[in-house]
Every structure is written in structure tokens, then in C-alpha cells.
Specification:
With 117 residues, this protein is mainly α. It is built from five helices and no strands.
Length: 117
């Protein structure tokens, strides 16, 4: 059974759109930042400056074809925050640093010098 022409055309259009997505993203970001810089709002201009400084990193997500997610980084940040909360009350940052190394590096716990039983 032959494939209809419309389906072949839509397949090629879809693949073309996927290949051009990084270029469209860059074009749109430049166009938006130019319009936003014309704004008389100083916080908006500051935000656009930040976006322009990080533009290559933002566009990497499109160039990687959305293969990566920020979920891994968010998970690591959550772990760090949890360890920091647990370490609240210790007198030095060294203890927090050791706790982070043990948790994030998945290091074994040291043997206890005494028993509680």
C-alpha cells in the first residue's frame, strides 16, 4: 500500500522544522531582546543583559535537541539543601562540607568508636 503524498510532505516538513529549531530559537531570542531593550524599564534591561550573557548556554538546549533535562541538577540541589538543613546547628562549615562529601559522593559512613546497645 503506497504512502499518501500528504503524509510524506508532513514527514519532511517535521524533520526540517526539527533541524531548524535552534536557528529559530536564536532568531527569536535576538528579536525579543532587541525589543525588550527599547523598554524604559531598568529591571527589564538588566534581565535582558543577563539573558544575552547566558545566550550560548540557553541555546545549547535547542542544539542538543532537548536530549537533556535540568531534572538531574534540580535533584542534586535538593539533596544539597536537605543535607544543609540536617547540618543546621553545627559549629563549623567543615562539618557541613564533610556531610556533603559523604552524601553526594556516596562515601561509606565511618565506624563508630562506641556502641549504644
Amino acid at each position: 500500500m503506497p504512502i499518501p503524498y500528504q503524509r510524506i510532505a508532513s514527514l519532511t516538513t517535521g524533520s526540517t522544522k526539527r533541524r531548524l529549531r535552534p536557528y529559530w530559537a536564536e532568531w527569536y531570542l535576538k528579536k525579543w531582546s532587541t525589543r525588550a531593550m527599547r523598554s524604559r524599564l531598568d529591571p527589564m534591561k538588566k534581565f535582558v543583559g543577563t539573558i544575552r550573557r547566558h545566550q550560548p548556554l540557553i541555546l545549547n538546549w535547542f542544539k542538543a535537541k532537548k536530549a537533556y533535562s535540568s531534572g538531574v541538577v534540580e535533584g542534586l540541589n535538593r539533596k544539597v539543601n536537605l543535607v544543609t538543613r540536617k547540618a543546621y546547628g553545627f559549629r563549623s562549615y567543615e562539618v557541613l562540607e564533610i556531610a556533603l562529601f559523604h552524601t553526594m559522593g556516596d562515601l561509606p559512613e565511618p565506624e563508630a568508636t562506641h556502641r549504644f546497645c
